C-alpha cells in the first residue's frame, strides 16, 4: 500500500447541514413507492412531491420561506393522480414541468415570489403517454425542449412552447428508471428494468448503444460525466451488492471501471458536478452522502470523503452550480428529503483566502439557451453557454415571459354503418358515454398488446446481448 496521499483540491470537502430553523419543516411529502428523488431545486425555488388525497399535487417553495410551514400550503394540484416527478426549466426559473400517474405531463408558470393560492390549471398539458409518466427532464441546451419517460416504455421529446411532440424513443422492454443527457444534448442515455443501458441519438431516434448493465433486480440510475463520452451507472449485482460502473461509449461492451460499494438495500441517487469532477452518491434510506473525484486520465474514481448523518434520506436534489455561494467556497448544495422536512446541506472547500477562488470555480453553465428546439431538430448542436461566477450570480426574481400555444383539438369521426343520430339530450349523453367506454376498452387492450410485444422484443435483445458477451 502506497504511503503517499493523492493530491487533490477537493480532499477536504465537507458538508454542513443547515440549522433546523432554516430548514423546511411540516411538509406532507409523497409516500408513492415510485423511484424518484422527490425534490428538484433551482436558484429561486425547490419543488417537492406532495401527499395529496384524491389527486396529484406538488409544492413549489421559495428558498427564503424557511421554518415550520403552514398546513394550508398552496399547491399545484391539476393532476388527477399522484405526481411522480418534476423538473425546473433550466432557462426560466419560473417554469416547471410535472409528470404523474394520470399519464399527463403538465407545464406550469410560477408567479413572482411563488404562488399564493392553489393552482389547478397548467399553462400546457401534454397528452400522449399511455401509462403513468415517471420521469421528466428538460434539455440542457435547447430552449423549451422536454423529455418524458412513461411506464409505456417510451421516451417522448416535447416542444413545450407549441405543445407538440417532436420525437419518440422506443425499444425499451420494461419501465425506464432514469434518463441523462450528453453535454450538448444530442444524446440521451436511459437505464431500464430490463437491465440494459441504452444511449439514443435523439434526432435519429435510434439507440446508438445497447449494452447489458447492472444485473440486480433493484433500480439503476445513470449520469453523464460532463463533456466526456463517458457515463456512470449505479445499481445492484445479482447478489444485491451496490455497484458503480463507468462506461466509455467508444467501447461500451463492458464497463471500463467497476466498483463494489456495499450491500445496503437503498437505491443510489447520483449527481455529477462537471466543474469539480466530483460524483456525489446518496442512497435511499442511508444517512450518508459519499463523494468521489473522477480522473479521466487514469479512468479512476477516487474516494474523497462522505457526509455522515443519523437521519435517513428519502430523496435528494442539488442546487444549480451558478447559485452556489462562491464567497464561502461552496461547490455544491444538496437538499435532503426527510419524512416531513427538507434540509439544505452545503459542501465547501476550506480556504483561508476570502478572494474569488478561480481554480475551484471555473466558468459554469448559465441560464441562457444555446439554441431553440427547432434549431436542435434541424441538426444544429451547441454546448451550454457558460458564465463566470467571479462577481457572483443573481437570480432574476421577476418571471421571464413564457407563452405557450396549445395544440388545436381534433375531431373524431366514426366509420361503420349509418346509425340513427341521437336527438335528445339524454340520448346524446348515453351515446357519448357508450362511445367513451368503448374507446377506453379498445385503447387499454391495444396498450397491453403493445407492451407485451415490447417485452418480448427486449427479452430477445437481452438474450442476444448475453450471447455476444
TrEMBL record:
It holds the Pfam family WD40_4. Binds to F-actin. Transmembrane segments: none annotated. This is Coronin. InterPro entries: Coronin (IPR015505), DUF1899 (IPR015048), WD40/YVTN_repeat-like_dom_sf (IPR015943), WD40_repeat_CS (IPR019775), WD40_repeat_dom_sf (IPR036322), WD40_rpt (IPR001680). GO terms for molecular function: actin filament binding. WD repeats lie at residues 76-110, 126-168, 169-210. PROSITE patterns: WD_REPEATS_1 (PS00678), WD_REPEATS_2 (PS50082), WD_REPEATS_REGION (PS50294). Belongs to the WD repeat coronin family. GO terms for cellular component: actin cortical patch. Residues 425-466 form a coiled coil. GO terms for biological process: actin filament organization. Residues 3-67 form the DUF1899 domain. The keyword Phosphoprotein applies. Keywords: Actin-binding, Coiled coil, Phosphoprotein, Repeat, WD repeat. The keyword Coiled coil applies.
Amino acid at each position: 500500500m502506497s504511503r503517499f496521499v493523492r493530491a487533490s483540491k477537493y480532499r477536504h470537502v465537507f458538508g454542513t447541514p443547515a440549522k433546523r430553523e432554516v430548514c423546511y419543516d411540516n411538509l406532507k411529502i409523497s409516500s408513492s413507492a415510485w423511484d424518484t428523488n422527490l425534490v428538484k431545486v433551482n436558484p429561486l425555488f425547490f419543488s417537492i412531491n406532495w401527499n395529496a388525497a384524491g389527486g396529484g399535487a406538488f409544492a413549489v417553495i421559495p428558498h427564503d420561506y424557511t421554518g415550520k410551514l403552514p398546513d394550508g400550503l398552496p399547491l399545484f394540484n391539476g393532476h388527477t393522480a399522484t405526481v411522480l416527478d418534476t423538473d425546473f426549466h433550466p432557462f426560466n426559473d419560473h417554469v416547471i414541468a410535472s409528470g404523474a400517474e394520470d399519464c399527463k405531463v403538465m407545464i406550469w408558470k410560477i408567479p413572482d415570489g411563488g404562488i399564493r393560492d392553489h393552482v389547478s390549471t397548467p399553462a400546457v398539458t401534454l397528452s400522449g403517454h399511455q401509462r403513468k409518466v415517471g420521469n421528466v427532464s428538460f434539455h440542457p441546451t435547447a430552449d423549451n425542449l422536454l423529455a418524458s419517460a412513461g411506464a409505456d416504455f417510451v421516451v417522448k421529446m416535447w416542444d413545450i412552447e407549441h405543445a407538440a411532440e417532436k420525437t419518440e424513443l422506443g425499444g425499451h422492454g420494461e419501465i425506464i428508471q432514469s434518463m441523462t443527457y450528453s453535454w450538448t444534448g444530442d444524446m440521451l442515455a436511459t437505464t431500464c428494468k430490463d437491465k440494459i443501458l441504452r444511449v439514443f441519438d435523439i434526432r435519429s431516434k435510434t439507440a446508438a448503444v445497447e449494452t447489458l448493465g447492472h444485473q440486480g433486480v433493484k433500480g439503476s440510475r445513470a449520469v453523464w460525466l460532463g463533456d466526456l463520452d463517458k457515463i456512470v451507472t449505479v445499481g445492484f449485482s445479482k447478489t444485491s451488492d451496490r455497484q458503480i460502473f463507468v462506461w466509455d461509449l467508444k467501447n461500451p461492451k463492458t464497463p471500463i471501471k467497476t466498483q463494489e460499494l456495499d450491500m445496503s438495500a437503498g437505491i443510489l441517487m447520483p449527481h455529477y458536478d462537471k466543474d469539480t469532477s466530483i460524483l456525489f452518491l446518496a442512497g435511499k434510506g442511508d444517512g450518508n452522502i459519499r463523494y468521489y473525484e473522477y480522473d479521466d486520465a487514469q479512468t479512476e474514481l477516487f474516494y474523497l470523503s462522505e457526509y455522515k448523518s443519523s437521519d435517513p434520506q428519502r430523496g435528494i436534489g442539488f442546487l444549480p452550480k451558478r447559485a452556489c455561494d462562491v464567497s464561502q467556497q461552496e461547490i455544491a448544495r444538496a437538499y435532503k428529503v426527510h419524512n416531513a422536512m427538507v434540509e439544505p446541506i452545503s459542501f465547501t472547500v476550506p480556504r483561508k483566502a476570502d478572494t474569488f477562488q478561480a481554480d475551484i470555480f471555473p466558468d459554469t453553465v448559465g441560464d441562457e439557451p444555446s439554441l431553440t428546439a427547432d434549431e436542435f431538430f434541424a441538426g444544429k448542436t451547441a454546448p451550454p453557454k457558460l458564465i463566470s461566477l467571479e462577481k457572483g450570480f443573481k437570480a432574476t426574481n421577476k418571471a421571464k415571459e413564457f407563452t405557450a400555444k396549445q395544440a388545436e383539438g381534433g375531431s373524431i369521426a366514426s366509420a361503420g354503418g349509418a346509425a340513427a343520430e341521437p336527438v335528445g339530450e339524454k340520448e346524446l349523453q348515453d351515446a357519448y358515454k357508450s362511445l367513451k367506454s368503448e374507446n377506453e376498452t379498445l385503447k387499454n387492450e391495444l396498450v397491453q398488446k403493445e407492451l407485451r410485444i415490447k417485452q418480448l422484443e427486449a427479452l430477445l435483445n437481452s438474450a442476444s446481448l448475453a450471447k455476444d458477451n
